[in-house]
Design brief:
CATH topology: Arc Repressor Mutant, subunit A
Shape: globular
Mean pLDDT: 79
Radius of gyration: 18 Å
Number of strands: 6
Oligomer: single chain
Structural class: alpha+beta
Helix content: 40-55%
Low-confidence stretches: 7-42
Order of helices and strands: HHEHHHHEEEEHEH
Strand content: 5-15%
CATH superfamily: Winged helix-like DNA-binding domain superfamily/Winged helix DNA-binding domain
Bound molecules: zinc ion
Strand order of the largest sheet: 1-5-4-6
Number of domains: 1
Number of helices: 8
Length: 211
Amino acid sequence: MATHNEVAMATIAKNKAAALEPDLAYDDSHPSLAPLSEQKPSTHAHDVLCISANDIATRLHTAQQQCQRKGVRFTTLRRTVYQLILQSDKPMGAYDLVQSLQAARLQEQGAKAKMVAPPTIYRTLDFLLQLGLIHQLTSLNAFVPCCHPRDQHNAVFLLCRLCHRVQECSDLPGYEVSKYVNNDLGFRIEKSVMELTGRCQSCVASTIDKS
Ligand SMILES: [Zn+2]
Ligand SMILES: [Zn+2]
């Protein structure tokens, strides 16, 4: 028989258009790639809002392993919130997350469902940020998955104001500012996310076609 949590997560997955198969997502025995944190980070741009169902399953599995190594718990809530951010086709705000979780609880438990407490969600988001699994986009007040989750890195986000595509470039060559700040100025950077707004490659190309 499905447990309480399995039902809740299956409901959330079902609600998403590109839902991954719950069985695959929660089966820790499926073959996984090398931990993302050990893969060489790429310096090109990655679309952070187009993640395949397979990739989502791999990332959840990798996150679980990462938590195990660090001796922290990858609780159902942490997993569910991370999964919602991975599945979303837009950056998710804390309010969107509360709504999605609440909808799933209501569907599952009816009128007696307890309300999702926003502080709990903020704590969960903090946990995922600390682990480097997600990034916070200040200009949109929303969260997106990291393209290559690992501890400390400089993330540069390219935000298209026309089609709302979000791309992450990390460890750009020649990214000298943080090196200078850390080494020469002695300022310890704890969070480094740069957000560049403009028109993405496809939107630039389609404008050129029309002219
Ligand atoms: Zn990142
Ligand atoms: Zn665009």
